[in-house]
Amino acid sequence: MNTKNTLTAERRRKNILSVVLAAICIIYVLPVLTVVINSFKQNTYVKIETFALPTAESSAGFQNFITGMTFGNYPFWKSVAYSALITIVSTVLILLCTSMAAWYIARVNSKFCKIVYYLCVFSMVVPFQMVMYTLSKTADTLKLNTPWTIPIVYLGFGAGLAIFMFVGFVKSIPLEIEEAASIDGCGPIRTFFSVVFPMLRPTMISVGILEIMWVWNDYLLPYLVLDINEYRTIPIHIQYLKGSYGTVDLGATMALILLSIIPVIIFYLSCQKYIIKGVAAGAVKG
Amino acid sequence: MAEVNLKHVVKIYPHSGKKKKSEHRTGNLKVTDQGVVAVEDFNLDIKDREFIVLVGPSGCGKSTTLRMVAGLEEISEGEILIDGKVVNDVAPKDRDIAMVFQSYALYPHMTVRDNIAFPLKLKKVPKDEIDRKVNEAAEILGITEYLDRKPKALSGGQRQRVAIGRAIVREPKVLLMDEPLSNLDAKLRNQMRAEIIKLRQRIDTTFMYVTHDQTEAMTLGDRIVIMKDGVVQQIGTPQEVFDDPANLFVAGFIGVPQMNFFDAKLVKEENGYIVSLGGVTIPVDEAKSKKLAENGVESKDITLGVRPEHIALMGEGKEMLHGTVEVGEMMGSSVHLHVTSLGQDVIIIAQTIDFKGTHMESFHTGQEIAYTFGGNVMHIFDKETGNSLTR
Question: Which residues of chain B are within 8 Å of residue A176 when distances are taken between CB atoms?
Fold first, then answer.
């Protein structure tokens, strides 16, 4: 009897928990859902029926997408190209440089390495807003204000988290593997690229995804650093979807936001399992 | 294949914190103002194609010595020569050595084939020759069918074979093995031990093998180097170190079950020496008496060592030692008796069956027994230094 009561109570508790978690999920998904719904509605209806599904009357079909992409005198494809360029170059640069740095930090037991490591970890807790003005000035002075050079700024900002994650993983790789490589005929560079680098794949993917999402969606840094008349990333382009009297075409804005998040969502979903692997890597001895 | 010479090799790990000024021993290792001495004045000449085993308990410096030969540890003092050339400052890849690690150290992202071929690829060996050598090594080690698998899909024994394959495929001058069988279970360890003996007959190279298992050392080595606390205790063939241990440590370390030690008195007489133990006198055999005389040994207190297999159980008699059986460990062909005698635990190996097939006497706890041993199986050690007096 007692067991039956316990089981019923347990089931009830689970049901309540499911409802609560479902509600939390909806709260999280709601903004994205709002964007999806409204990207297919006419501008007027976006304002008055924000959370309603598109009807025959309110639907704009794909018109918002066409409007968004052809709005103003700055071609949307250019924004996509700049965003892609900055994201790809920054991510590759971060992955390559920080994985090498992390390997060195993890393997060379010196005070210098410890200081560098703690500086990197410390950089994660410094908010961007605290340094953004001095940074944009420095970036201007050092000519880091173009889509080809801004990845260096991203490298600086992304290094903290990436090094933190890579160091954790490298420490879990048995040193004997690298010693075996050095006996087999590898120098340090060959050891890194032939042996260590391939083993870093799970962490590489998770760091890569985090960096891609950050750089692709970043608004403030390119806005402050880049010459926005010449170079616009997608978030900046969206911010400029304004009419002559400051009116904002919300339907078109939503459509472009949807377009911009689609690649990241696809990328994230396809690599999702590696994120967990990468984050958990090094936590336990395998 | 090559000769390897270690001349006055020393390894000191510098202090990490405050410098310790005075010279002393912490734990068991010597500490100087330079740091902790992990290996002290190591001298060894390894002949071409010789199989040398470094054996000793954990922390005795055997792996450190091997790693110094491999180039994975810097040498603090002394010289290491491979094939007549000093290699102190030569990178591991340029020493023409190969090493098998305890943890296998296979490259997890490569297949077995790629793992074995890796050192050859780095040497830029032509592809068809790589294929031939990889297949040959795989055949020797019986891993041909696993060549396209990744290491994670292999068992411990198979992984160790791959690691050995990667080492032998290069035809190194010296093959270093750092406790290669320690991660395997007992059955597989015995099997792999036999495989290493066979492998040794098939490939022409000099072996340096590290283990803490004295059985492995005895069965594999042409010569054994026994180490303790960074110091070489004895170098010799398995038979030599078994028959004539240099000190109490070697005597206790080599041989299973361990040698029995007794506090006894050595008495010098006109025509030789006798040992007095528990009221019984046993004459020392002629060869040992001669050695004792050569060493100028006078009557003194000694530590007497006798191996359990050299003790004979007999009936009552005047010149017999007596004891009570505490535990009998049945091993099949023999029983290991733990006997309380002369106020200590004495181990005696008693056969359960004789050469005619007759079953011998059985033993039970509490049984009173008498035993003795001959003067030729006694090992006589100095009570203070622990060194053998008959060497």
Answer: 101-103, 105
